[in-house]
Specification:
The chain is an alpha/beta fold. Helices cover about 40% and strands about 10% of the residues. The chain has 12 helices and 8 strands. It has an 8-stranded parallel beta sheet with strand order 6-5-4-3-2-1-8-7. The protein has a single domain, classed as Dihydropteroate synthase-like (TIM Barrel, Alpha-Beta Barrel), CATH 3.20.20. The protein is globular.
């Protein structure tokens, strides 16, 4: 006789149950595969999707969608940091007004949440309200209090290379390396544990399109610091310089860039197109596993 079927297991969470705890970044990095960080811009003017998720309900819905698509981390920002096209700085109060209706709900999804802000006041609020990673596009070198905020909470920090202006005359790889060395020294002086530092070469920030390509090509070079690397090439302007297309039609260039970066040592990729990136990474992993 056939065995009686077991009752279907339910994964529904009781209404009064606490939200699932997000795994620490260190644990995720030990999984042995690249991590996908989904971008959530709660802004009116981000270069690719500005305004699409300014409404809190849409923002939360998009976060839920990225989580369902396989994102490992959700990165939420409330100020556009686009390097070209008239970025409009906002106050810390403006950022917090955009974040407060969104971030707590995103935290409840149970994934690690990164706060993308160059202001220590904003980072402190977000970290005290469930975010577990600080993402500083100025690598601890713009806001004098950012390092102490990160150190006091013992959380990972993403240190991104940046410049006020692109200079085509410089050796961009040497510039990135010198910037990273300064940021690591600032982190050490503030008491940030070295294992809590992630490096990001800042594709598209303070660089010509050609320099962004050079930085991608030197992904393996930046591994010399012995720290995890994050690469965020998603929909960036350099793709347009190779194959002309508006931001929302640069998925192919984004995937090519991130697959190259992962192949050469990147541990995390920061992307707009989560489902496509997760699929591409799974397929390339399957092919490499079957390779003779």
């Amino acid at each position: 006789m056939p065995k009686p079927m077991e009752p279907a297991r339910t994964t529904a969470t009781p209404p009064d149950a606490p939200p699932p705890a997000a795994q620490p970044l260190a644990a995720l990095l030990k999984r042995g595969r690249p991590l996908v960080m989904g971008i959530l811009n709660v802004t009116p003017d981000s270069f690719s999707d500005g305004g699409q998720f300014l409404d809190p309900k849409r923002a939360i819905g998009h976060a839920e969608e990225m989580a369902a698509q396989g994102a490992d981390i959700l990165d939420i920002g409330a100020e556009s940091t686009r390097p070209y096209g008239g970025m409009r700085p906002v106050t810390a109060e403006d950022e917090l007004e955009r974040l407060k209706p969104v971030l707590p709900a995103v935290v409840k999804l149970g994934l690690p949440v990164s706060i993308d802000s160059l202001k220590s006041e904003v980072a402190a609020w977000a970290l005290d309200n469930g975010a577990t990673i600080a993402n500083d596009v100025w690598g601890l070198q713009r806001d004098a209090h950012m390092a102490e905020v990160v150190a006091a909470r013992s959380v990972p920090v993403i240190v991104m290379h940046n410049r006020d202006e692109a200079d085509p005359r410089i050796d961009i790889v040497a510039d990135v390396e010198a910037f990273f060395a300064r940021s690591i020294a600032i982190a050490s002086e503030a008491g940030i544990a070295r294992e809590n530092i992630v490096l990001d070469p800042g594709i598209g920030f303070g660089k010509t399109p050609e320099q962004s390509i050079v930085c991608l090509a030197h992904t393996a070079t930046f591994k010399a610091f012995g720290l995890p690397l994050l690469v965020g090439a998603s929909r960036k302007r350099f793709i347009n310089s190779v194959s002309e297309a508006p931001p929302d039609q640069r998925i192919g260039g984004s995937l090519a860039s991130h697959l190259y970066a992962v192949r050469h040592g990147a541990a995390i990729v920061r992307v707009h197109d989560v489902a496509e990136t997760v699929q591409a990474l799974r397929v390339i992993a399957a092919i490499e596993k079957a390779a003779p």
